[in-house]
Amino acid sequence: MSSKMSEPVTPPEGGDAPETPNLDFAGTTPYEDYVQADVLTHLQHLRSDDPGEMVFLVTTQVMELWFTVIVHEWETASRALREDRVPVAVDALKRSVRELEALNASWTPLAQLTPAQFNSYRSALGEGSGFQSAMYRRMEFLLGDKSASMLVPHRGAPRVHAELEKALGEPSLYDEVLALLARRGHAVPASVLQRDLTRKYEPSPEVEAVWAELYAGDQNGELVRLGEALTDVGELVWRWRNDHLVATRRAMGAKAGTGGSAGVAWLEKRATKNVFPELWTARSHV
Ligand code: HEM
């Protein structure tokens, strides 16, 4: 798009025509300055001649952007919880629910790939795999699925590594929720509150009992509304994993993944994990 007009712009016919947008800018457009669309739309470096590779790459990039937005919302929610501002946290979680829906809808163009279509560019991916997505890993860390070994692939990328390392040592979104419940007088055990934050969160029967008690009470209470916003998040993350699993099964059956895993068998195991586990198991006791 040219930013300088050589000819003066002719106004539209008729005196009462609505004003047309400005066409004349000295440098790049203010839109470009803000959105950086020129950068964004030139990041598609294809590795094969297959016409189907473009949508595979762009869908992956779109998902990375959604991961970035969702991490931002969950970090906002975590901070708000730490400061006892529950409505601010619930607002951020609710925004993330709409964003997770948009993220999940972006599976559509990849959901029905046949093995032959995927094979047309698969070898061009080399050992590249979404498993190496640092932003997805930050989402998992915020959900409580911490693991120091997940930093290893990023040793060669200092900024990414530093961000992940920081996230590994910080309380997850769920840790902040449980700390809030404890401050509100609920019996969250000290072993949970003082857990090693760099390890995966393990479900606790006492935490399950806290949620069961809350869910048996006032349905409009602040903490039940927080619990439901978290449950929506958990359900949509589980849906993303399952949509990914089914798309993978359609595109490559039981072959090994480009990232070196057993492929579908490995993803199946990952997809069975419950996000915020006690929010699901507590329902049996209400
Ligand atoms: C239909 C196309 C796709 C196939 C066949 C596929 C296949 C796989 C496989 C087999 C794995 C396991 C690790 C490995 O060995 O590579 C994996 C992991 C992963 N993929 Fe995909 N994938 C596809 C599309 C995508 C897209 C578009 C994204 C978006 C970023 C993505 C993100 C991920 C993530 C985040 C993981 C790690 C999951 C975890 O750690 O639990 N995948 N994928």
UniProtKB/TrEMBL annotation:
Binds 1 heme group per subunit. Substrate binds at R122, T258. It comes from the Bacteria. It catalyses: L-tryptophan + O2 = N-formyl-L-kynurenine. InterPro entries: Trp/Indoleamine_2_3_dOase-like (IPR037217), Trp_2_3_dOase (IPR004981). The keyword Glycosyltransferase does not apply. GO terms for biological process: L-tryptophan catabolic process to acetyl-CoA; L-tryptophan catabolic process to kynurenine. Pathway: Amino-acid degradation; L-tryptophan degradation via kynurenine pathway; L-kynurenine from L-tryptophan: step 1/2. It is an enzyme of class 1 (oxidoreductase). It holds the Pfam family Trp_dioxygenase. Its cofactor is heme. SUPFAM superfamilies: Indolic compounds 2,3-dioxygenase-like. Heme binds at H244. Homotetramer. Belongs to the tryptophan 2,3-dioxygenase family. HAMAP family: T23O. This is Tryptophan 2,3-dioxygenase. It comes from Streptomyces hundungensis.
